[in-house]
Amino acid sequence: MVKGSMRRRFVLALATLAAVPFAAWANTAPANLPGTFTRWGTGEFRRFGFLVYEATLWAGDDPLRPPLALKLTYRRHIAGKDIAEASVKEMRNLGLGDSAQLKRWGEQMGSIFPDVKPGDHILGVHLPAGARFFYNDRPAGTVDDAAFARAFFAIWLDSKTSAPDLRAALLKRPAG
Hints:
Elements: H1 2-19, H2 22-26, E1 38-47, E2 50-59, E3 68-74, H3 80-93, H4 99-112, E4 121-127, E5 130-135, E6 138-143, H5 146-157, H6 164-170
Helix pairs in contact: 3-4, 3-5
């Protein structure tokens, strides 16, 4: 009798959980954000038709000025060194940073970014003096360099980004 009652409560709890709209969770700011942030847009990054990650932008009144945060939820296995290399490549393509800076930034990102698997997320927080990174809600590392932070977040937010559709989705003003 007790087992049946517990099972019914468990099933009822699952049904109640399923009734909560996903959007309600998506609108809750990550715990690691300093100050007051609003969720701006969400979009997908695909490469060769495959979903690589989903991105969500959190910011104040201006989504192009720090402080702001970008959460990437990965949908594929990717080595941390590959994330760092792709980031450097994108910064280089945007004309940001000289060779020495890009090399140093690549090394710093390589030591911060872990290998990811589907469901993992990295939250990058752009502050005026640098950037903080969190992996699955745990501190992953900090780069105390304002030029790095501007270059890193430009990968998604610069008007010359290689992913203009994702940029447009991220910068979409929230309803209400």
